[in-house]
Amino acid sequence: xxxxxxxxxxxxxxxxxxxxxxxxMAVDVVYDGAAxxxxxxxxxxxxxxxxxxxxxxxxxxxxxxxxxxxxxxxVLMLTASGDVSDRxxxxxxxxxxxxxxxxxxxxxxxRVRALGRRTTVxxxxxxxxxxxxxxxxxxxxxxxxxxxxxxxxxxxxxxVLMRSEGAVVSAEQLLEKAWDENTDPFTNxxxxxxxxxxRKLGEPPVIVTVPGSGYRI
Length: 217
Prior knowledge:
By secondary structure, the chain is an alpha/beta fold. It folds into two domains: 116 residues, 3-Layer(aba) Sandwich (Rossmann fold), CATH 3.40.50.2300; 90 residues, Orthogonal Bundle (Arc Repressor Mutant, subunit A), CATH 1.10.10.10. A hairpin with a 3-residue loop joins strand 10 and strand 11. Helix 2 packs parallel to helix 3 and helix 6 crosses helix 8. The chain is elongated, with a radius of gyration of 18 Å.
């Protein structure tokens, strides 16, 4: 899942990003509304975690622009105000969900994951394919009832492949969904991660390389 965190309190923004990365999400961070508009114009995000009170360009205007562009991106709006009227106003702007500060990180994570599921065709909470079971919420992977321990990026790549339901996923698509914008697009990190993932998943191999196209399960 690709997430953009937009928050002018840099310590909070960086803490949220670090936590979401530990949950195997690819996360970019910006600290004002103008930078947010620049990012959403370049990258495809599943979810934008958007502070409402932003400098340069207000969060309301960022939300309106995302809606106007007709993006499948979901918006989770954050605010220091817990008033019902503010929550209603935020949702009427086009936000998909609203979370007042301070918040529990576990709740933020759950809401981000719930919104991320709404950007794609609805799938069961636990993904199953080729003898593999993947639970995004618990971050657990099993093959034939044997639990497999994966690093965050390995988990993210496997989740993208599982969600594709047999369709071929290119290396570029994996890079887009599982890594943030600081990753060198010419790196071999996707190939190396897939190789390590194959080894951990064991025999017989379930990840198939489609020459010139990408990977599928």
